[in-house]
Structure formats: structure tokens, C-alpha cells
């Protein structure tokens, strides 16, 4: 994670900086991201925050396979794998998963959505599953012309979707069902037509054009910008957005509980064979005759 300021300090730019891992989100990265957002929020000179990513892809989602990610999910001194209940010991996998996902994946994202700055996500390449959570927490999204958006943790992973379940609000109800049931992606042009993406720029111009876009917003009066953000967010909340998010998070945890039961009471940490791993993003696809 790197942090910088531009335009005489009026624009802060936060970079996801794990390009070799396709910016897959370890919990360390999420902690650093929260600290960076907090730093920008505390800086009175900053008016707009850009969330960008190094490398070919914006983010491959949660890091499920690296040694770092597996070590982070190992029970610590306050995250015991089992605990006493009525004199007996039982597995605490579901409870541990619930609490950790609430903290790292849900509460964080909700807090970033309400950040006291205007935020702009700058997206190139793939934004997959939890990558969507990061950009949906931002006020505005701009994308390169090669950007693609998908949530493959839907039916392919046996889950209803990621923890911050904004799909019906970002895609529309029927499109959300289609994308979750198939695991298909939409491109930048379709995301623009749906209203999810504000601007589409050529890949080579994405960084400069995003700064220009952010500069236009930074020139607006700060108080007016925040009142606009609060008003629009409040309208979404009045239509049930935050309550729907909270309900969907609990449904997501039910999906984990089902996985645990189906896998001998173990929370899965790997990926089913038809879900892309961040380590294979951009690799040549096998021909159909090579596939089972």
C-alpha cells in the first residue's frame, strides 16, 4: 500500500500495491487501506481521494491461497479454534469466521462508504468479487476501456455473493441475479450503461484522466460536496440499502455455515476448480479439448 498527495495536497491517491498477486486482498492490506483512508480523512487539505491499483488488474478479490493469507487466518491468542460451552468444547469456526468477516470485510467497507471525503475508484483490468467491494464503497468509479467486473463467489463457490452485498443496487435486480448465477463478467461499457461507472478512459490515459476528473471535483466547495454525498447516501439508506447490506451479510455467513457442514465442519480456504485463482489471471486459457 502506498499513499501520496497531488495537486497541492487537495487530492490523495492510495495505491493497492501487490501487482504480483493481482492485488489480492490480504488482511494486512485491508488494515493498511483503512489506515490510509483514515489518514486522508484527517487531512483538512485533502478534498478527493483516489483509490488506484498497480499492475494489470485492479484486484482479484480476497487472497485465499497465499502463505500470507493462510497465516493470517490461523487462530491467534484471542481467536481460539475452540471454546468451552457448558463444560464441553466445541468448534468455533463459524463464530470466528463471522467476527473476522464482519471486521475486515463488512464494517471496514461500510466505514469507507461514509468517509468524510469524496472518493473515486480508478479501475483497470479485472475487479473480481471483493474487488467490487472496494470500488462500490467509493462515491464514483472510473474505468479503463479494458476493465471487467465480476463476482465469482456466487453460485460457483456456493455462496450468495461477497460480504458487502451491493449487487442489486449497482447492477439492478435481474442483472445481479444473472451475474451471480453465472459468474459472468461485464465490461466497462456495460458498467457505464448501467450507471455503475461514471467515466471510461483509454487504458494508457487512465491515470492522468482520473486525476483530471478528481481535480474538477476538488475545485467544488468542500461543504457542498459533502452535503451532496450525505444526501445521496441518505436517499439510498431510506430505500433500504444499509438494512439490505446487513441482512445479506448474515445470509453470506449462512453460506459459510453450509460450506462448513458440507466439508466435515471445516471452513474452506481454497477455491473450487472452476473459480479463477489470482495467480492464473492473465494466463493463456486452455483449449476446450484440454478441459475435462
Automatic annotation (TrEMBL):
Q: Is Lipid metabolism found in the keyword set?
A: yes
Q: Where is this region: Disordered?
A: 270-292
Question: What are the record keywords, sorted?
Answer: Lipid metabolism
Do you know which InterPro entries this protein is assigned to?
A: ClpP/crotonase-like_dom_sf, Enoyl-CoA_hydra/iso
Ranges that cross the membrane = none
Cleaved signal peptide residues: none
Which Gene3D superfamilies does the UniProt record give?
A: 2-enoyl-CoA Hydratase, Chain A, domain 1
Name of this protein: Enoyl-CoA hydratase
Organism from which the protein derives: Mycolicibacterium cyprinidarum
Q: What is the lineage of its organism?
A: Bacteria, Bacillati, Actinomycetota, Actinomycetes, Mycobacteriales
Amino acid at each position: 500500500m502506498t499513499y501520496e498527495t497531488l495537486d497541492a495536497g487537495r487530492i490523495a491517491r492510495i495505491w493497492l500495491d501487490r501487482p504480483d498477486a493481482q492485488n489480492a486482498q490480504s488482511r494486512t492490506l485491508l488494515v493498511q487501506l483503512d489506515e490510509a483512508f483514515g489518514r486522508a480523512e484527517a487531512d483538512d487539505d485533502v478534498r478527493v481521494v483516489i483509490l488506484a491499483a498497480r499492475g494489470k488488474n485492479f484486484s482479484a478479490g480476497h487472497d485465499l491461497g497465499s502463505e500470507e493469507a493462510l497465516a493470517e487466518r490461523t487462530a491467534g491468542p484471542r481467536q481460539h479454534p475452540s471454546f468451552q460451552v457448558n463444560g464441553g468444547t466445541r468448534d468455533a469456526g463459524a463464530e470466528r469466521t463471522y467476527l473476522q468477516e464482519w471486521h475486515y470485510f463488512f464494517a471496514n467497507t461500510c466505514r469507507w462508504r461514509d468517509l468524510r471525503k469524496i472518493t473515486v475508484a480508478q479501475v483497470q483490468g479485472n475487479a473480481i468479487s471483493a474487488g467490487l467491494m472496494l470500488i462500490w464503497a467509493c462515491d464514483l468509479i472510473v474505468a479503463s476501456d479494458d476493465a471487467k467486473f465480476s463476482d465469482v463467489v456466487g453460485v460457483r463457490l456456493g455462496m450468495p455473493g461477497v460480504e458487502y452485498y451491493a449487487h442489486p443496487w449497482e447492477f439492478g435486480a435481474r442483472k445481479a441475479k444473472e451475474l451471480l448465477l453465472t459468474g459472468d463478467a461485464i465490461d466497462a461499457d456495460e458498467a457505464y450503461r448501467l450507471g455503475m461507472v461514471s467515466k471510461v478512459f483509454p487504458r494508457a490515459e487512465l491515470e492522468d484522466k482520473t486525476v483530471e476528473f478528481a481535480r474538477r471535483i476538488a475545485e467544488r466547495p468542500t461543504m457542498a460536496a459533502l452535503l451532496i454525498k450525505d444526501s445521496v447516501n441518505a436517499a439510498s439508506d431510506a430505500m433500504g440499502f444499509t438494512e439490505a447490506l446487513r441482512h445479506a451479510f448474515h445470509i453470506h455467513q449462512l453460506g459459510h455455515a453450509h460450506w462448513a457442514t458440507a466439508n466435515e465442519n471445516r471452513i474452506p480456504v481454497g477455491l473450487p476448480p472452476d473459480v479463477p485463482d489470482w495467480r492464473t489471471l492473465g494466463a493463456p486459457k486452455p483449449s476446450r479439448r484440454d478441459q475435462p
